[in-house]
Write a structure and sequence with these properties.
Layout: E1 2-8, H1 11-16, E2 22-27, E3 35-41, E4 45-52, E5 56-61, E6 66-74, E7 79-81, E8 84-86, E9 90-95, E10 99-104, E11 108-116, H2 117-124, H3 130-136, E12 141-143, H4 146-166, H5 178-197, H6 211-225, H7 233-240, H8 244-255, H9 259-277, H10 285-291, H11 297-308, H12 319-324
Antiparallel strand pairs: 1-3, 2-5, 3-4, 4-11, 5-10, 6-9, 6-11, 7-8, 7-10, 9-12
Helix pairs in contact: 4-5, 6-8, 6-9, 9-10
Length: about 325
């Protein structure tokens, strides 16, 4: 069993530290970012708790052959997962290999639990009504009874915290009973989770993705694919056959910002991610900026500093590799 505890001042380094997840994070709200990440891994389970003080959008792919859950501990604002609105009265769910997009409000605190599919299925079929639980897992946001969720969340956090304290020097010291301890931990986490999902008043109704989320996510993907040719709001309205007000309201509801600022932030995050993962000899700041659609370097530098609290020339090159070497 492995354990790690980190604090970060960059969301890209934070994202890179979460093993097995193919994902990128993008900081949307301006200012100095502060985050923490606690992780615990067995052979068949990965649990982590992350706290981030800025609004962030996560985009990526869940680990293959895994079953993934997340419990919002604190979400002081609107969170959106797979186009659905979520809060701290919900469980979030992803199938292994599924593409996802998660809009996290500022000061989000989240506990994530990921299990090998075989392990999860083994425990699921020991439940009295596995088909009912399986039906709940056809939706990314599961509404559960608030009182039961609060109690379950507290027990899961206690299990997680106790396991973190039992590990010596970042790694569980293996002995003849180590495998039994891992299995006991996995069973405890799964038992709490499946017990909550088996509650008769869990809401089986499926919440549909909203038009507002569709608009935001479509433009997000277009920007990532071709950052140098981001369409204007007028072009977006024409393509999607919607009004300018609809586009503006969509971004305000999902990301709490304007379309122009959101897309600019995505591109600035693209530049920062490349700066953090390359050496100065490999690519200049100007070359990277132009790939992300910034051709006026003075304006670019001002926008970069406003979002991240430092000039691009102050960003440490290859920081993501250095942290984990």
């Amino acid at each position: 069993m492995l354990q790690s505890i980190h604090r970060f001042q960059d969301v890209h380094v934070h994202a890179a530290a979460i093993g097995a997840w193919k994902q990128t994070y993008a900081q949307i709200s301006a200012g100095k970012l502060e985050s923490s990440l606690m992780q615990l891994s067995t052979r068949r389970c990965h649990a982590f708790r992350e706290r981030i003080n800025k609004r962030v959008v996560q985009h990526g792919e869940a680990p293959k052959d895994q079953i993934c859950f997340a419990f919002p501990i604190t979400t002081p604002g609107a969170a959106h997962v797979q186009g659905r609105e979520a809060d701290d009265k919900s469980i979030l769910f992803l199938q292994g290999g599924e593409e996802f997009m998660f809009h996290m409000p500022m000061d989000t605190d989240l506990l994530s639990l990921t299990f090998d599919s075989d392990l999860f299925e083994e425990h699921l079929h020991q439940m009295p009504d596995p088909d009912r639980i399986a039906a709940l897992l056809k939706q990314p946001v599961i509404k559960v009874p608030p009182a039961g969720l609060r109690a379950c969340r507290e027990r899961l956090l206690n299990i997680f915290s106790r396991a973190m304290l039992q590990i010596d020097g970042g790694q569980w010291q293996y002995d003849a009973q180590a495998d039994q301890r891992e299995q006991a931990l996995e069973s405890s986490l799964l038992g709490e989770l499946l017990g909550l999902l088996s509650a008769p008043d869990c809401d089986p109704s499926r919440q549909m993705s909203t038009t507002r989320s569709y608009i935001v996510e479509k433009l997000h993907r277009q920007t990532i694919v071709d950052a140098a040719n981001v369409p204007s709001i007028f072009e977006v309205c024409q393509r999607l056959q919607v009004s300018r007000r609809t586009v503006q309201n969509s971004f305000q509801a999902v990301a709490e910002t304007t379309p122009l600022n959101y897309l600019r932030c995505l591109r600035l995050n693209g530049v920062r991610r490349e700066l953090l993962s390359t050496m100065a000899q490999q690519a200049s700041i100007g070359d990277i900026a132009s790939r992300w659609g910034f051709f006026h370097l003075s304006h670019f530098a001002e926008d970069y500093q406003a979002l991240f609290g430092e000039l691009p020339s102050q960003t440490s090159r290859r920081s993501m590799q250095k942290v984990f070497q």
